[in-house]
Design goal:
By secondary structure, the chain is α+β, with helices and mostly antiparallel strands. Helix content is about 50%, strand content about 15%. Helix 2 runs antiparallel to helix 8, helix 10 packs antiparallel against helix 11 and helix 13 packs antiparallel against helix 18. It is elongated.
């Protein structure tokens, strides 16, 4: 039985391609390494894009899952109040089911050491909305987990295995959570963690989860405390747009019915997938564009090398054509070689991507895993094939069209070689243009990051250590007990050698979370725009000196303010400007949140103004902020903060011991210096900057190699011409100028095209920049000069080689 002639021909092409690549190990190594970098970077970034943006959420009929938000005074998404949740849930034509939840870390005790576990308090419909059944036991059911019934909890697969050893009889057992007995009713399947990183879900004691500061109070009538996240499943046939319009109508009705009790300017419904990953999209698309440019540059580089190598094989191609091989066969042979290169580069690219997965994992939301799966392998195969065709087809067509006569003609090297040199020049010009785009983008991110680093945090993070503590309500039921615990811990912390001051705050700057309160000025109308609720923080008197927050006017809290003194508050500069423009706020009175337990003293006196602190992100303007003494409004969870006279990490064990000396069953968690807090808040931007900077550096190297190759090949092809010039009196410096001028023209052409592309591409960066314009002239000029300098540097060695040409050797007839 005879084999297929077409298959025989293809195998013959493949064997010949392998021999050709083995004969030129230097060329093969450079080409494969170049493609490995380009394909590997694309594969790694695509793994992030796929995991974050493309893969559907792991829930049944996930397209119908949504989140509901109220729009605040700035038309930004805000969480809901408890009464609003009930109002939206009563619309069956809009939502098939609706559930409320709030994240709430839990303290697990009863086994070995106490452990802090990320958790959530959820309404009974929570798991029904998501549509995920339990692995063991059951999830929460409205008819079995009614408000007021025994406390029930569902465990994640992770905490079930880690804390309870995967006990198959865990369902029905009683565990201790925050000092209270909870019955375990189920264990969720592996991988389920919503919200992200949650390891335990506790059923709400009421129809919706209570506020964390009032856990024993039914919040169902509350409209002034916005703290609940809401996830829902749309009714069949209802679109996101229809749901948003209906929710906005419901909010308008509530606003009319309840007046000022119903805050906000409207409501919106957002796809759950968009809500979880939408904020990551701009940065990921920027990186995807960067690696796509890098791959194009890599392909251009390999195409340039193939053109040069093909020009030296022109005689071979001509002989094969003269012996009967058609041009299609020659093109196919060259494409086979290109595909073999790209396949090898693709295989090694997968390995390179695997090494990149760990460092780039910081780009994905918590709980998202990056893996090399079938989808990723398919993407890499397709990318490798496309790359092979991209960089192989153009050189193949150009070289196959040179013709028999030209290839066999003695001395034909000049005509075909110069044609190849011009083509390579065009390819290198494109490389330089694309490299400038990457350099410009990297430069903008670097300048943006430096601007952010120079942005004042509003506090001094040096030599400050923080740790978080939560007091279980079962053991610390009253504000007096909570305040007493804090006083004793602070006394012990101040006694630690090396500690200069100690304090507590309800939420540290630059950590997740937000607590706001509405403000009403006493004795005067609120200014326009005052409906913006300021951040509300409770602190001990030494907080400002511990964290290094500047006093602008007035005074800080003192011990006299804590024990029987009238309610007082310290405000930030932005709050002073917002509520008392062109006035001195010292001595003014306002009602804000809970200034005192006494109804007779429901208003606070402003006693001080401090500098603005970046409470949320360094890239965001400081929000109006009000601080009240901790003892006037004790919270069961807080951060303990100390300033030291030595390395802060050296007092970690002593500070932990100070907490455990008061209560040994309390876990201390999130122990970190304030410098680490600041660094973590910047880590996503830093990683993007390093990645894009790395891609730009690779592009610069590839452009340098491309320019060097063009100039070196040009010198070889023009050796005869250079010999004639030198024989007629041209000096070495004239030859140097000739070659460097050619490189300079290539660089200027590429930079000119690149500037146009950079200005257009810069607009895509606008959402990830801070303090820098997309057409920043300093960055553009710096990137352009760098590329031109690299081009001249790359041409120097070929220019010196040309200047050393011996005219007698160059003019000798072959």
């Amino acid at each position: 039985m005879q084999s297929d002639p077409t298959m025989q021909s293809l195998l013959q092409d493949l064997r010949f391609a392998l021999r050709q690549l083995r004969r030129n190990p230097g060329f093969t190594l450079v080409a494969v390494l170049t493609l490995t970098l380009g394909i590997g970077a694309n594969t790694a970034i695509f793994s992030v894009i796929d995991a974050v943006l493309l893969k559907p959420l792991p829930y049944p009929d996930a397209k119908r899952l949504v989140t509901v938000y109220e729009l605040d005074a700035r038309h930004e998404n805000d969480v809901l109040a408890a009464a609003d949740v009930a109002s939206y849930a009563s619309e069956p034509h809009l939502f098939e089911s609706l559930a409320a939840y709030r994240s709430s870390p839990f303290t697990l005790t009863g086994q070995d050491l106490p452990e802090r576990v990320e958790g959530a308090v959820v309404s009974a419909d929570f798991f029904r909305v998501l549509g995920v059944p339990a692995k063991l036991g059951r999830t929460l059911l409205p008819d079995l987990d009614k408000a007021g019934s025994a406390l029930t909890a569902v465990l994640s697969n992770t905490v079930w295995k880690r804390r309870f050893g995967g006990d198959p009889t865990i369902v029905g057992k009683i565990i201790d959570i925050d000092g209270e007995p909870y019955t375990v009713v189920g264990v969720m399947p592996e991988g389920f963690a919503f919200p992200a990183e949650t390891e335990m879900w506790a059923a709400s004691k009421f129809s919706v989860p209570p506020h964390p500061l009032t856990p024993n109070t039914d919040p169902s009538a509350s409209r002034d405390r916005h703290y609940l996240e809401v996830v829902g499943r749309l009714a069949p046939g209802v679109s996101i747009e229809q749901a948003t319009s209906a929710a906005d109508t419901i909010h308008a009705r509530l606003k009319k019915q309840f007046g000022d009790q119903e805050s906000g300017t409207g409501a919106t419904v957002v796809s759950l997938h968009e809500d979880l990953v939408g904020k990551n999209r701009p940065a990921l698309l920027v990186l995807l564009g960067a690696v796509a440019l890098l791959l194009l540059i890599a392909c251009a580089n390999v195409a340039s090398v193939l053109l040069a190598r093909g020009a030296s094989r022109q005689r071979e191609f001509a002989i094969r054509e003269a012996l009967g091989a058609g041009r299609k066969r020659i093109v196919r042979q060259l494409i086979t070689e290109a595909l073999l290169l790209s396949a090898t580069g693709g295989g090694l690219g997968i390995l390179a991507a695997w090494f990149l997965l760990k460092p780039i994992s910081a780009l994905v939301p918590p709980g998202t895993s990056l893996t090399i799966d079938v989808r990723l392998l398919g993407f890499t195969v397709a990318l490798s094939l496309a790359s092979g065709v991209l960089f192989g087809l153009f050189p193949a067509l150009q070289l196959a069209n040179a013709g028999v006569q030209s290839g066999l003609r003695e001395g034909s090297r000049g005509s075909t070689g110069m044609r190849a040199t011009r083509l390579r020049g065009s390819v290198v010009t494109a490389e330089i243009a694309l490299s400038l785009v990457l350099l410009m983008a990297a430069g903008l991110l670097i300048r943006s990051f430096n601007k952010l680093l120079s942005e004042p945090e509003g506090f001094n993070p040096e030599r400050v250590l923080s740790m978080q503590v939560s007091l279980p309500r079962a053991h610390y039921q009253t504000p007096e007990q909570q305040a007493a615990f804090v006083r004793e811990v602070l006394d012990r912390a101040r006694a630690i050698p090396g500690v200069s001051s100690a304090s507590v705050i309800s939420r540290l700057p630059l950590l997740p979370g937000q607590s706001t309160r509405d403000v009403t000025l006493v004795g005067k109308p609120s200014p326009p725009g005052a409906e913006i609720d300021p951040d509300y923080l409770v602190v001990s008197p030494d907080y400002f000196s511990t964290l290094g927050v500047n006093l602008v006017r007035g005074r800080f809290f003192t011990e006299a303010d804590l024990h029987g003194g009238p309610p007082v508050a310290v405000i930030s500069e932005s709050m002073a400007r917002h509520f008392w423009p062109n006035e001195d706020p010292i001595g003014k009175r306002m009602t804000i949140g809970k200034c005192s337990d006494s109804a007779a003293n429901s208003s606070c006196e402003v006693i001080g103004v401090v500098g603005d602190v970046k409470e949320h992100e360094l890239s965001q303007a400081a929000r109006p902020t009000a601080y009240v003494p901790y003892e006037h409004d004790p919270w069961p969870f807080f951060s303990l903060v100390v300033r030291t006279r030595m390395e802060p990490a050296s007092v970690t064990s002593e500070l932990t011991a100070a907490v455990h000396a008061v209560d040994k069953n309390l876990p201390v968690y999130r122990v970190q210096t304030m410098q680490e807090v600041v660094a973590r808040s910047l880590s996503p931007r830093r990683l993007r900057m390093f990645l894009l900077g790395g891609f730009a550096a690779l592009a610069l190297i590839l452009a340098c190699v491309g320019i060097y190759g063009v100039m070196a090949y040009s010198v070889v092809q023009r050796e005869h011409e250079i010999g004639i010039r030198m024989a007629m009196g041209a000096k070495k410096q004239d030859v140097l100028k000739l070659i460097t001028r050619q490189a300079l023209m290539l660089a200027l052409s590429g930079v000119g095209c690149g500037i146009v592309l950079s200005i257009g591409a810069g607009r895509l960066l606008s959402s990830v920049l801070y303090g820098v314009g997309v057409s920043d002239p300093v960055t553009l000029l710096g990137a352009s000069l760098l590329l031109i300098s690299v081009a001249l540097g790359a041409s120097l060695a070929p220019a010196l080689r040309a200047a050393r040409v011996d005219p007698m050797v160059a003019l000798r007839v072959d």
